[in-house]
């Protein structure tokens, strides 16, 4: 893309920003010493980068890690214990800056789980499961720990942790058709979870942690 010369309106934008900041200080609490417009423009130029089209970009340094309450995704909002994709994951983890020796130290974790056909065949002997579920391999970027904290899981382009999970499609729904029992007494589909050890990132260092992931879906009475 061709780079155009800076618009003549850009200096006017900076001057306007400086004027507004000075005006805010004048009508707010008294300032020890008011900055001149020139001083304020210099400060603004050190904070913001102004490009063609009067666009203002924040050039601050990204944080090294997301806080627990900042790890948000569609799965977490839906009440699940993991996130498939975390916003700003690469910026938060900085995995491209981590020494290759750390990856080598945990190389046994960077594989995909293998499905076990014999277990599927065994389950089919009992007929169709009363609860609909899906089984697949996911690559979670975050998950809940044993102490209910959300951790960032290491998922690098060449070092991924594939986890086999089974998830209910109808959690909380009755799993028996044509039952004579009242709705509140009918068995319902329940999602089961288990904790497994994965490699997570804490303060720029890799470590092993137990995280909560969905395992099986079964039909159970609400009281059990």
From TrEMBL:
Residues 1-28 form the signal peptide. Residues 130-221 form the Spaetzle domain. This is Protein spaetzle. SUPFAM superfamilies: Cystine-knot cytokines. PANTHER family: NEUROTROPHIN 1-RELATED (PTHR23199). The gene is LOC105234276. It comes from Bactrocera dorsalis. Keywords: Disulfide bond, Glycoprotein, Signal. GO terms for biological process: central nervous system formation; innate immune response.
């Amino acid at each position: 893309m061709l780079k155009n010369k800076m618009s003549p309106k850009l200096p006017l934008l900076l001057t306007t920003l400086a004027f507004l900041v000075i005006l805010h200080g004048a009508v707010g609490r008294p300032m020890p010493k008011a900055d001149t417009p020139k001083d304020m423009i210099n400060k603004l130029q050190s904070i913001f980068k102004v490009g063609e089209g009067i666009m203002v970009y924040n050039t601050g340094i990204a944080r090294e890690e997301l806080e627990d309450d900042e790890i948000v995704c569609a799965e977490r909002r839906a009440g699940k214990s993991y996130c498939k994709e975390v916003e700003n994951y690469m910026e938060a983890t900085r995995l491209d800056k981590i020494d290759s020796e750390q990856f080598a130290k945990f190389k046994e974790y960077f594989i995909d789980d293998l499905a076990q056909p014999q277990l599927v065949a065994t389950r089919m002997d009992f007929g169709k499961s009363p609860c609909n579920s899906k089984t697949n391999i996911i690559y979670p970027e975050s998950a809940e720990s044993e102490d209910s904290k959300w951790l960032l899981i290491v998922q690098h382009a060449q070092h991924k942790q594939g986890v086999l999970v089974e998830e209910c499609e109808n959690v909380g729904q009755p799993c028996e058709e044509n039952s004579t029992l009242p709705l509140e007494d009918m068995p319902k589909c329940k999602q089961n979870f288990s904790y497994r050890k994965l490699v997570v990132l804490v303060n720029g260092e890799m470590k092993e942690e137990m995280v909560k992931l969905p395992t099986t879906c079964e039909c159970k009475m609400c009281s059990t």
